[in-house]
Structure formats: C-alpha cells, structure tokens
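Can't attach files on this board, so I'm pasting raw text. These are the components:
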Amino acid sequence: MEKSKIWLSSPHMGDAEFKYVKEAFDTNWIAPVGPHIQQFELALSSITEYRAVAALSSGTAALHLSLILLGVKHGDEVICSSFTFIASANPILYQGATPIFVDSESDTWNMCPSMLRECVKDRLSKGKKPKAVVLVHLYGVPAKMKEIISICQEFDIPLIEDAAEGLGALYNGQPLGSFGNFGVFSFNGNKIITTSGGGALVSNDEKVIQQAKFLATQARDDAPHYQHSFLGYNYRLSNVSAAIGLGQLEVLDSRVEKRRANFNFYKKALDEYKNVLFLEEQKGSYSNRWLTTVLLEGIDKEILRQALEKDKIESRPLWKPMHMQPIFNQAPMYGGSVCEQLFEKGLCLPSGSNLSDDERDRVLNQIIKVLEK
Ligand SMILES: *Cc1c(COP(=O)(O)O)cnc(C)c1O
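---
Top answer:
Structure tokens for the assembled complex are below.
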C-alpha cells in the first residue's frame, strides 16, 4: 500500500467550523463584514485578558498596522528578534524603517534580554532611540516577559508581541499576546488553529484598535461618498474565515493539549539518545508546543531530514535567522552565535494536532533508524 504523507503541521478542523460557515452562507455574509467577525473578535478577546481585538487578513497585516499605529516611519529603527520567520521583520521594511536584530538566548531560543539591553544602549549612544521592539514567542515557547518588559519600560520603548506561533501558551498564567502594547496572532493554515488565512491585532487600548480597523478598511472617512484623508490598506478578515475561526477557538485547548502530547511522546521515546536535545519548559511557562523541535549533536540535520522525506515525512530546519538572510545583509545585529547554532543543528518534527498514533510511530521509527546507523 502507498504510504500517506505526514505533514509538519496541517489544518485540523473540529465539529463546529462547518456549521458556522454554513450559517455565513445561509445568511449570505460572504464578505469582509458580517456577524461572525464580531463573534470571532469577542471570542478571541475572552482568551486574551479581554483585550480589544481587530480581526485581520493575516498576522503580517497585524504587525504592519502595529508599526503604523506606533508612528514608525522612514528612517526609524525597530528592534526585532533575529531568530524568527521573515513576517516578523518585513513590515519594518514596509515602513521604510531599519530592523535592528537581536540574538536568542539558549534556554528559550527567544530574544536574549541582556543582549536587548546592550542593543538599546548602543543605539541610544549612536543618537537614535528605537521606535519599538518586535518580540517573537517562537514555536509557542514564551519569551522571558518579566525581563523584556522591564527593559522596555526602563527605556520607554513600546513592545509588540509577535505571538503568531504562541496562541494558547501562557507565561506565569497569563496568555501570550496580552503583555505588550500590541499582541499579534496568525491563523495561517500551518498555525495552531487556522482560518485558512488570517490574523489579529490586540491591545488594551480600544481606541487604537478602532484606528487599526479604520486603516484596514482603506482608511475610509465617515461620509456617504468615498472620502480618504489617510493612507489605508485592505487588511480585513473575511466573514467566512471568521466563521472557521469561531469553530477553531472552541477546540484551541484540546489542540494545545495534543501538541504538548506530541512533544512529550518524542521526548520520552528519544530519551536514551543523548545527542537529541529538546527545549525544556521554563518555570512559570506553558508552551503550546506548536512545533516540536530538536537539536542534533554530532548528526547532520540534513541527513535526518532527507531520510524522513524519503519516507514521505515532512520535517524542516529551524528558521534561518534574519541577520543571515540576503535581504537583511545591511541590518545591524547584536550577538548572533546562539541563533546561528540553533539553525545549524535544529529540526522541526511533524507536530500536527491531527497526527495519529501510527503516524507518530512511523516518524519515530525513521528517526531511530537514522540515529542507530
Ligand atoms: C506565521 C507567522 C507570522 C505571520 O503570519 P501570517 O498570518 O502568515 O501573515 C508572523 N510571525 C511569525 C513568527 C509567524 O510564525
């Protein structure tokens, strides 16, 4: 029998999504306006400490709007985690600003607080105050919020939490995305829950979120004719997508539990292989384990990746740091050796919440085959 493909992280629908989508069809709200958008925003608000929410077309759009709302302009500097997906950094370029990248720390893989402090001090000494910090919670692992927030407060720099991979994860019991001036989520197809494509911007400031919605709707002024006084964007979420999202939020907790179970399965099963390292959870942190990642000591990650691929199993190297990307070769970087090593040694394993036990066993057996060689 032909073996089925095992994906890294594929969409996983629950029981209610189709019911909500059918409602949208039955009521003909097939548009970027409609009742499911409001319901989705309310539901998301209730799991992010009741912050104000703007549902948007992508996480990238949410990041872009957060920079605009913080007044980031041409020539400004914005600090960003180097170890991330490029969507964290691209919006800085959209605004004509310069990304200033900061290295990871080895115990969370997220932005290193002491390197951040060094970076801020150095930028200030060069005569420029960074306009914002884009902090990423990579792979659903919480960054060290206490330390990062205290630095942002000390130097009075706004904090944007890129929690695109972090929905459902907690830091000292508080949801990721609810700490910074802004929190950003993504509902792309590979994320912990999906709307097939979508995102959200959250903030404590209801007025600022109203402004985000205004900018996302081509900045249309309040007039019967079409009048525009500001540069706007078409960044709204479709009502059909929001209907999917409503169903997905109902199963978020069980998705997190399943992804955490995947992590525990791999970790336990590979415990005896001391050259395979897992990222431990910090005290007070509750990761959603969006993707299970491993660091390989003394084994070429590419050999394992290719062996898995031969068996129709998708795995993927960790994110290639931004300061190593050709497009950012001019950008200042603080530190770098930590995330360079992670990229060198790390692999993401199939982590979907819809992986069957048989599929997980298939992945495990292939990994062990390579390790025993
Ligand atoms: C997915 C992702 C984004 C962007 O989200 P989209 O909805 O795909 O635009 C931003 N940052 C990180 C860290 C991501 O993983």
